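[step 3/7] fold_predict: job queued, chain A
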Amino acid sequence: MIQYPWADDGLVACITVTAMPSADAAIHAPQPGAQEVATSEAAQEAAWPADGLVSHTITIQTDRHVIVWEDNGFLGASEEQFLRLCEPGPAGSVFVNVNAVSRLLLGDEGRIVREFDPLFRSETDEGEGDPLPAEAALDWRMGRHISSSLILIASYTGLSEPFDPGWFESPPARHWLLRY
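[step 4/7] structure written:
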């Protein structure tokens, strides 16, 4: 099984995998006014304006999926936006912030099928929807809950490529600004 130790080392992001047909469709589903910028550096410079929070968001398109990485963002794990992201097929999103607030969503055909807080998932599971069989084999302890979330999302969506943070510095990466 693929492991993601980098994900459990202070990750503050929202990572979404969607079957949207393009990066443009995936980024505009949560926010129609998303603005594309040329480079990561330009996005970082624009990410903290005086008139509100703007998140640097990165998209990578694979052959069957779009991966959306919201640096310090949350739109992909917001219910209304997630419902749009899961309309075309299986999608998953995990959100975690600096206060250890986290949320994992799995959906398909415009509806949420599973939702829980991966940090507090335990044998008595208090999430919404029936637990998936793949959840039982994962390590949900603190320090492993985010990488387990990514493994579950990859399994649920059929993402065959392992998550790699190096993707977001590669030429296919597209950089966007989302205003909150």
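[step 5/7] annotate
The chain is about 20% helix and 25% strand.
The mean pLDDT is 86.
exit 0
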